[in-house]
Amino acid sequence: MSKTETRVLTVHVPVPLAEKVDDLARRMERSRGWILKQALVAWIAQEEEKDRLTREALEDVDAGYVVEHRVVQEWVERIGTDQPLPMPEPR
């Protein structure tokens, strides 16, 4: 079995956060490093997805596939009233 190459990263965190990591590691019977690696993997995946969605949205804007602010505002103001408007569609 081949070993994955690794690097040590050092970071200073507030003591209360470090204590939460230690408590979680203890409860899960895992190492602090395992907890931090899982958190980092999840955070990076979340940030990559946000970046992908932002780029996708900007492509829509560049293509003119948008809903005017005024139209959205009118739709929102009528939500929950006796005369709601249908959800606006991009043009």
Describe what this molecule looks like in 3D.
This protein has helices at residues 15-28, 32-62, 69-78. By secondary structure, it is mostly helical. Helix 1 crosses helix 2.
| Helix vs. strand class | mainly alpha
What is the CA-atom radius of gyration, in angstroms?
A: 23 Å
Contiguous low-pLDDT stretches (5 residues minimum) are: none
Query: Helices and strands, in N-to-C order?
Result: HHH
Q: What gross morphology would you assign?
A: elongated
- Cα end-to-end separation: 55 Å
Keywords:
single chain; 91 residues; mainly alpha; 0% strand; elongated
Give a topology summary:
Layout: H1 15-28, H2 32-62, H3 69-78
Give a short synopsis of this structure.
The protein contains three helices and no strands.
